[in-house]
Design brief:
The structure holds three protein chains of three kinds.
Chain A lengths: L1 H21 L4 H26 L4 H22 L7
Helix pairs in contact in A: 1-2, 2-3
Chain B lengths: L1 H32 L3 H27 L3 H30 L15
Helix pairs in contact in B: 1-2, 2-3
Chain C lengths: L1 H21 L3 H6 L1 H14 L3 H24 L7
Helix pairs in contact in C: 1-3, 3-4
Classes of the chains: A mainly alpha, B mainly alpha, C mainly alpha.
Protein backbone atom coordinates (compact mmCIF):
# COMPACT_ATOMS: atom_id res chain seq x y z
CA UNK A 1 0.00 0.00 0.00
CA UNK A 2 2.96 2.31 0.59
CA UNK A 3 4.14 1.46 -2.93
CA UNK A 4 1.05 3.14 -4.43
CA UNK A 5 1.77 6.42 -2.62
CA UNK A 6 5.33 6.35 -4.04
CA UNK A 7 3.94 5.78 -7.56
CA UNK A 8 1.51 8.69 -7.04
CA UNK A 9 4.38 11.02 -6.08
CA UNK A 10 6.36 10.03 -9.20
CA UNK A 11 3.32 10.65 -11.45
CA UNK A 12 2.76 14.07 -9.87
CA UNK A 13 6.42 14.97 -10.43
CA UNK A 14 6.03 13.95 -14.10
CA UNK A 15 3.08 16.35 -14.37
CA UNK A 16 5.20 19.09 -12.81
CA UNK A 17 7.96 18.42 -15.34
CA UNK A 18 5.44 18.69 -18.20
CA UNK A 19 5.21 22.43 -17.38
CA UNK A 20 8.67 22.80 -18.90
CA UNK A 21 7.52 21.10 -22.11
CA UNK A 22 4.66 23.61 -22.41
CA UNK A 23 6.67 26.73 -21.55
CA UNK A 24 10.19 25.96 -22.75
CA UNK A 25 11.77 28.89 -24.52
CA UNK A 26 13.87 26.76 -26.84
CA UNK A 27 13.87 23.26 -28.32
CA UNK A 28 16.61 21.68 -26.07
CA UNK A 29 14.64 22.63 -22.95
CA UNK A 30 11.74 20.56 -24.22
CA UNK A 31 14.00 17.62 -25.12
CA UNK A 32 15.53 17.56 -21.61
CA UNK A 33 12.08 17.61 -20.04
CA UNK A 34 10.95 14.79 -22.37
CA UNK A 35 13.94 12.66 -21.34
CA UNK A 36 13.19 13.25 -17.66
CA UNK A 37 9.52 12.28 -18.09
CA UNK A 38 10.58 9.09 -19.90
CA UNK A 39 12.88 7.99 -17.07
CA UNK A 40 10.16 8.78 -14.50
CA UNK A 41 7.64 6.56 -16.29
CA UNK A 42 10.28 3.81 -16.50
CA UNK A 43 10.46 3.93 -12.68
CA UNK A 44 6.65 3.78 -12.53
CA UNK A 45 6.70 0.63 -14.68
CA UNK A 46 9.29 -1.06 -12.44
CA UNK A 47 7.28 -0.22 -9.30
CA UNK A 48 4.05 -1.53 -10.89
CA UNK A 49 5.88 -4.77 -11.59
CA UNK A 50 6.26 -5.22 -7.83
CA UNK A 51 2.73 -4.08 -7.04
CA UNK A 52 0.99 -6.44 -9.49
CA UNK A 53 3.46 -9.35 -8.91
CA UNK A 54 3.88 -9.77 -12.67
CA UNK A 55 7.55 -9.85 -13.63
CA UNK A 56 6.86 -9.50 -17.38
CA UNK A 57 6.51 -5.74 -16.87
CA UNK A 58 10.28 -5.42 -16.24
CA UNK A 59 10.85 -6.46 -19.88
CA UNK A 60 8.42 -3.75 -20.98
CA UNK A 61 10.41 -1.22 -18.92
CA UNK A 62 13.72 -2.33 -20.51
CA UNK A 63 12.38 -2.00 -24.08
CA UNK A 64 10.81 1.35 -23.19
CA UNK A 65 14.13 2.75 -21.92
CA UNK A 66 15.89 1.71 -25.13
CA UNK A 67 13.35 3.49 -27.32
CA UNK A 68 13.35 6.71 -25.25
CA UNK A 69 17.12 6.86 -25.77
CA UNK A 70 16.74 6.33 -29.52
CA UNK A 71 14.15 9.14 -29.62
CA UNK A 72 16.54 11.61 -27.98
CA UNK A 73 19.34 10.67 -30.38
CA UNK A 74 17.14 11.05 -33.48
CA UNK A 75 15.78 14.42 -32.30
CA UNK A 76 19.25 15.79 -31.59
CA UNK A 77 20.52 14.65 -34.98
CA UNK A 78 17.68 15.61 -37.29
CA UNK A 79 16.14 18.71 -35.70
CA UNK A 80 19.25 20.76 -36.46
CA UNK A 81 18.17 22.48 -39.66
CA UNK A 82 14.63 23.41 -38.94
CA UNK A 83 14.91 25.34 -35.70
CA UNK A 84 14.19 29.04 -36.05
CA UNK A 85 17.01 30.43 -34.01
CA UNK B 1 15.79 -15.07 13.38
CA UNK B 2 14.84 -15.41 9.73
CA UNK B 3 11.80 -13.22 10.40
CA UNK B 4 14.05 -10.51 11.88
CA UNK B 5 16.33 -10.54 8.79
CA UNK B 6 13.24 -10.31 6.56
CA UNK B 7 11.93 -7.25 8.41
CA UNK B 8 15.40 -5.64 8.24
CA UNK B 9 15.54 -6.16 4.44
CA UNK B 10 12.09 -4.54 4.10
CA UNK B 11 13.25 -1.51 6.11
CA UNK B 12 16.43 -1.12 4.00
CA UNK B 13 14.42 -1.41 0.77
CA UNK B 14 11.91 1.24 1.79
CA UNK B 15 14.69 3.61 2.92
CA UNK B 16 16.21 3.29 -0.57
CA UNK B 17 12.82 3.88 -2.23
CA UNK B 18 11.97 7.00 -0.19
CA UNK B 19 15.44 8.48 -0.79
CA UNK B 20 15.10 7.94 -4.53
CA UNK B 21 11.65 9.46 -4.67
CA UNK B 22 12.91 12.55 -2.85
CA UNK B 23 15.54 12.98 -5.58
CA UNK B 24 12.96 12.50 -8.36
CA UNK B 25 10.65 15.11 -6.81
CA UNK B 26 13.54 17.56 -6.48
CA UNK B 27 14.26 16.99 -10.20
CA UNK B 28 10.72 18.09 -10.98
CA UNK B 29 11.11 21.21 -8.82
CA UNK B 30 14.45 21.96 -10.50
CA UNK B 31 12.89 21.76 -13.97
CA UNK B 32 10.47 24.52 -12.97
CA UNK B 33 12.65 26.79 -10.88
CA UNK B 34 16.01 26.87 -12.66
CA UNK B 35 16.60 29.93 -14.87
CA UNK B 36 18.67 28.53 -17.69
CA UNK B 37 19.16 25.63 -20.11
CA UNK B 38 22.53 24.44 -18.83
CA UNK B 39 21.46 24.32 -15.19
CA UNK B 40 18.45 22.26 -16.29
CA UNK B 41 20.82 19.89 -18.07
CA UNK B 42 22.70 19.49 -14.79
CA UNK B 43 19.48 18.69 -12.93
CA UNK B 44 18.30 16.28 -15.61
CA UNK B 45 21.54 14.38 -15.61
CA UNK B 46 22.80 14.01 -12.05
CA UNK B 47 19.78 14.41 -9.82
CA UNK B 48 17.55 12.17 -11.94
CA UNK B 49 20.21 9.46 -12.10
CA UNK B 50 20.65 9.55 -8.30
CA UNK B 51 16.91 9.11 -7.86
CA UNK B 52 16.37 6.39 -10.42
CA UNK B 53 19.39 4.31 -9.37
CA UNK B 54 18.29 4.55 -5.76
CA UNK B 55 14.75 3.38 -6.61
CA UNK B 56 16.10 0.47 -8.67
CA UNK B 57 18.46 -0.49 -5.79
CA UNK B 58 15.44 -0.57 -3.49
CA UNK B 59 13.64 -2.92 -5.87
CA UNK B 60 16.80 -5.03 -6.06
CA UNK B 61 16.90 -5.43 -2.28
CA UNK B 62 13.18 -6.24 -2.30
CA UNK B 63 13.67 -8.93 -4.94
CA UNK B 64 16.60 -11.03 -3.67
CA UNK B 65 18.89 -13.08 -5.89
CA UNK B 66 16.89 -14.23 -8.88
CA UNK B 67 16.71 -14.03 -12.67
CA UNK B 68 14.64 -10.83 -12.43
CA UNK B 69 17.30 -9.11 -10.32
CA UNK B 70 19.71 -9.67 -13.24
CA UNK B 71 17.31 -7.68 -15.45
CA UNK B 72 17.27 -4.90 -12.85
CA UNK B 73 21.10 -4.79 -12.87
CA UNK B 74 20.98 -4.60 -16.69
CA UNK B 75 18.56 -1.63 -16.42
CA UNK B 76 20.87 0.12 -13.91
CA UNK B 77 23.99 -0.25 -16.12
CA UNK B 78 21.99 0.74 -19.20
CA UNK B 79 20.71 3.93 -17.56
CA UNK B 80 24.20 4.83 -16.33
CA UNK B 81 25.57 4.62 -19.87
CA UNK B 82 22.54 5.97 -21.73
CA UNK B 83 21.45 9.07 -19.87
CA UNK B 84 24.94 10.54 -19.80
CA UNK B 85 25.21 10.13 -23.59
CA UNK B 86 21.75 11.67 -24.12
CA UNK B 87 22.48 14.75 -22.00
CA UNK B 88 25.84 15.22 -23.74
CA UNK B 89 24.17 15.04 -27.15
CA UNK B 90 21.58 17.66 -26.09
CA UNK B 91 24.33 19.95 -24.76
CA UNK B 92 26.22 19.66 -28.05
CA UNK B 93 22.98 20.42 -29.93
CA UNK B 94 22.46 23.55 -27.82
CA UNK B 95 26.05 24.64 -28.32
CA UNK B 96 25.79 24.42 -32.10
CA UNK B 97 22.82 26.78 -32.05
CA UNK B 98 24.64 29.42 -29.98
CA UNK B 99 22.26 29.32 -27.04
CA UNK B 100 23.91 31.41 -24.35
CA UNK B 101 23.50 31.04 -20.63
CA UNK B 102 21.88 33.81 -18.61
CA UNK B 103 24.31 33.70 -15.73
CA UNK B 104 27.60 34.72 -17.32
CA UNK B 105 30.62 35.04 -15.04
CA UNK B 106 33.62 37.26 -15.72
CA UNK B 107 35.72 34.48 -17.24
CA UNK B 108 33.13 33.60 -19.86
CA UNK B 109 33.18 36.92 -21.69
CA UNK B 110 35.44 36.50 -24.68
CA UNK B 111 33.90 38.10 -27.77
CA UNK C 1 -6.11 4.18 -4.54
CA UNK C 2 -5.30 2.65 -7.92
CA UNK C 3 -8.36 4.44 -9.32
CA UNK C 4 -6.94 7.84 -8.36
CA UNK C 5 -3.68 7.13 -10.22
CA UNK C 6 -5.66 5.95 -13.26
CA UNK C 7 -7.80 9.12 -13.31
CA UNK C 8 -4.75 11.37 -12.90
CA UNK C 9 -3.03 9.61 -15.81
CA UNK C 10 -6.12 9.99 -18.01
CA UNK C 11 -6.28 13.73 -17.25
CA UNK C 12 -2.55 14.00 -18.06
CA UNK C 13 -3.18 12.14 -21.36
CA UNK C 14 -5.88 14.64 -22.33
CA UNK C 15 -3.59 17.55 -21.39
CA UNK C 16 -0.80 16.19 -23.59
CA UNK C 17 -3.18 15.67 -26.52
CA UNK C 18 -4.56 19.23 -26.25
CA UNK C 19 -1.00 20.59 -26.14
CA UNK C 20 -0.08 18.60 -29.26
CA UNK C 21 -3.06 19.92 -31.19
CA UNK C 22 -3.14 23.58 -30.16
CA UNK C 23 0.54 24.57 -30.12
CA UNK C 24 1.92 26.87 -32.80
CA UNK C 25 5.28 25.25 -33.43
CA UNK C 26 5.37 21.87 -35.13
CA UNK C 27 8.56 20.70 -33.39
CA UNK C 28 6.99 21.13 -29.94
CA UNK C 29 4.14 18.95 -31.10
CA UNK C 30 6.57 16.22 -32.14
CA UNK C 31 8.41 16.38 -28.81
CA UNK C 32 5.14 15.85 -26.94
CA UNK C 33 4.44 12.62 -28.89
CA UNK C 34 6.73 10.22 -26.84
CA UNK C 35 5.15 11.56 -23.62
CA UNK C 36 1.72 10.60 -25.00
CA UNK C 37 3.06 7.12 -25.79
CA UNK C 38 4.59 6.63 -22.37
CA UNK C 39 1.40 7.62 -20.54
CA UNK C 40 -0.50 5.17 -22.74
CA UNK C 41 2.00 2.40 -21.83
CA UNK C 42 1.38 2.96 -18.10
CA UNK C 43 -2.40 2.99 -18.63
CA UNK C 44 -2.22 -0.34 -20.49
CA UNK C 45 -0.17 -1.80 -17.63
CA UNK C 46 -2.74 -0.66 -15.06
CA UNK C 47 -5.56 -2.20 -17.14
CA UNK C 48 -3.73 -5.60 -17.02
CA UNK C 49 -2.55 -5.79 -20.63
CA UNK C 50 1.28 -5.93 -20.62
CA UNK C 51 1.56 -7.36 -24.16
CA UNK C 52 -0.32 -4.41 -25.63
CA UNK C 53 1.92 -2.16 -23.53
CA UNK C 54 5.02 -3.75 -25.07
CA UNK C 55 3.70 -3.20 -28.60
CA UNK C 56 2.73 0.38 -27.70
CA UNK C 57 6.21 1.10 -26.31
CA UNK C 58 7.82 -0.10 -29.53
CA UNK C 59 5.46 1.62 -31.95
CA UNK C 60 4.33 4.96 -30.51
CA UNK C 61 7.23 5.88 -28.25
CA UNK C 62 9.84 4.63 -30.71
CA UNK C 63 9.19 4.29 -34.39
CA UNK C 64 6.45 6.85 -35.06
CA UNK C 65 8.40 9.66 -33.43
CA UNK C 66 11.52 8.83 -35.44
CA UNK C 67 9.58 8.76 -38.71
CA UNK C 68 7.90 12.10 -37.96
CA UNK C 69 11.20 13.77 -37.05
CA UNK C 70 12.94 12.56 -40.23
CA UNK C 71 9.93 13.65 -42.32
CA UNK C 72 9.83 17.14 -40.78
CA UNK C 73 13.57 17.44 -41.45
CA UNK C 74 13.01 16.97 -45.18
CA UNK C 75 10.53 19.86 -45.43
CA UNK C 76 11.35 23.55 -45.50
CA UNK C 77 10.05 26.10 -43.06
CA UNK C 78 8.19 28.99 -44.58
CA UNK C 79 8.89 32.33 -42.93
CA UNK C 80 6.12 34.82 -43.51
Amino acid sequence: MLLLYLILIIVLSAILTFYRVIKGPSIPDRIVAMNSIGVMFLLVLVLFSYYFERKFIIDVALVFGVFIFIDVLIMAKYLKKSEKG
Amino acid sequence: MINLINILMQIIAYVFLITGIFFVLSTAVAMIRFPDLYTRLHAGSKCLMAGSISVLMGCLVLEGINLNSLKLIVIIIFLLVTNSVAIHVIASFANNHKIKSKTITKNDIED
Amino acid sequence: MIDIILYILIIFLALTAFFMVFTKDMLSSIIALPIFGSILVVIFVILQAPSAALAEAVITAGLTTGFFVITINKTEMQND
